Amino acid sequence: MSGTPDDDELEELRRKKMERLQEQAEGQEGGQAQEAAKQQAEAQKKALLRQHLTDDARKRLNTVKMSKQQFGEQVERQVLALAKSGRIQGKIDDEKMKQLLNELKPEKKSFDIRRR
Question: Taking the model in full, what pTM does it have?
Fold first, then answer.
């Protein structure tokens, strides 16, 4: 710094800009770490499902997830909870998956429309 007001202001602006760039770089590194953790959790979830579901049951679950994503994710969470608690004996086959889907299926709301 040479001491003139313009040079001091310019130096201050450079310093602030450099701090902002460093903060952005740190934020991106944190975002990358968060993304890597998310991918690792997804891989673990898939491995658990592969371990506890037969191919047909996995196909049925994927089909349900394609048509009703929230319901499919709910079923997936339920299967993972059962697996982690040790309540699954062997693998879940297609028939057991159908039973599980029927048990977790939301109640249908019926509407009566009467015309006068």
Answer: 0.61
